[in-house]
Design a protein that fits this description.
Blueprint (H helix, E strand, L loop, with lengths): L1 H11 L8 H14 L5 H25 L5 E4 L5 E4 L1 E4 L4 E4 L2 E2 L18 H6 L3 H11 L1 H16 L6 H17 L5 H11 L5 H29 L10 H22 L1 H6 L7
Antiparallel strand pairs: 1-2, 3-4, 4-5
Length: 273
């Protein structure tokens, strides 16, 4: 009967007499000792081991799909690896200086009949153009991180640039290493939700960041289509292109009007908030 009251005190939260307080405290301590969680250092060790295992699987997947040497697949499905030279002009394929008939090679028309290895790709790089590409590309991720930080601030979530930089590059890694383009966003959403109480707002900014990035891409593509509209290759698609550009322009105009109070006031739609 006594233990029944203690059970009710611990699990059902019913009040008990003051005389039973010391005994209840002893039982609660025993109960906590049996259900004691893992020490913090052990938790951290387990988390790090899981991270290391995930990294090992991803690294194995990446390395397993990298071929150092050139290769091609014959009609029987067998892969041949070695030094391969391809001449698009006369449609000649040389495998270790031996001509290979294209009829015996599996490949899609319009593509090269062989797969370049990492050695040839790295060896064919022009150092000057590579440095120029890195210099031009370097500010892009920083601007993307800054854009996400602005969206977080709008939602009332404060995240230092260094932390946003770390989480963004974690997302970049998973976007490139894991099949699909949303794996990095999921991982980034998980980590940013752990760092704030405004979890819904923080996760929403990742979706908004995607939308803003897509809108910028659409504007760039539509601008290039407009520039190339006189190209004969686009003559059959001119009507569709003009319709698409009209829809994009209408959407952009609507967004500008909605978010600009002075324009809404001038149009008599200032009641929209």
């Amino acid at each position: 009967m006594l233990y029944g009251r203690y059970y009710e005190a611990i699990f059902i939260k019913r009040p008990i007499e003051a005389a039973d307080t010391s005994t209840v405290t002893l039982i609660i301590r025993k109960f906590e000792e049996r259900t004691l969680p893992l020490p913090r250092n052990k938790k951290k060790l387990i988390v790090n081991l899981v991270r290391l295992a995930v990294f090992a699987v991803i690294a194995w997947f990446i390395v397993g799909n990298i071929e150092l040497d050139d290769s091609y697949v014959d009609a029987a499905g067998q892969t041949h690896t070695g030094e391969i030279t391809w001449s698009p002009g006369d449609q000649t394929l040389l495998y270790n200086d031996t001509p290979v008939p294209l009829e015996t090679v599996q490949y899609k028309k319009g593509t090269e009949p062989y797969k370049q290895g990492l050695r040839k790709v790295v060896g064919s790089m022009k150092l000057g153009l590579l440095i120029l590409a890195v210099v031009l590309w370097f500010p892009v991720p920083l601007l993307t991180i800054w854009r996400w930080q602005i969206l977080l601030k709008i939602q009332g979530v404060t995240l230092h640039f260094a932390e946003a930089f770390k989480l963004s590059y974690i997302g970049f890694f998973f976007n490139n290493a894991v099949p699909g383009m949303t794996g990095g966003d999921i991982v980034k959403a998980f980590y940013v939700a752990k760092q704030t109480r405004r979890k819904t707002e923080a996760v929403t900014t990742i979706f908004l960041d995607r939308v803003v990035g897509m809108a910028g891409l659409v504007i760039i593509c539509s601008t290039m289509l407009l520039v190339k509209l006189s190209d004969p290759r686009f003559s059959e698609l001119k009507g569709s292109i003009l319709l698409l550009l009209g829809l994009i322009a209408t959407g952009v105009l609507g967004v500008v009007i909605f978010f600009t109070e002075s324009i809404r006031y001038a149009l008599g739609s200032n009641k929209i908030k």
